[in-house]
Task: structure prediction
Amino acid sequence: MSMLVPNILEVEILTSVLTPALTLKLYSNDKTPVAGDTSSAYTEVTGGGYSSKSLTFANWTITSGDPSVATYNSVQTWTFTGPTDSPATIYGYYVIRVSDGHLMWAERFPSANVPFSTIAGSVIKVLPKFTAQSAN
Result:
């Protein structure tokens, strides 16, 4: 038997997950996210003009439905000034909770795009999106 979570509770779950201050980071190690990961499993990109991005709750739009979806109000863009530091690759992004550094979620970029190596003017864009849905 499958448990059903009503759409309104999915919205409450998304709200509680996204309310704390969050930070969006790019990672440089050849990592595919798995369920047991912690933030220490990811090596944050350094150099090349990179800096992490703050995500604030006021900028999320949460829509109830099947599934319920939270979408950030803007694409987060990194424009690089040159190559990043060693290993000079980017494989994906991860999001941490600022208060305790806990990993909230991570995503590897599509295989056609990794590893990504930056040069001056390289651009990476991420639209943060989070979905909640009961298993049927």
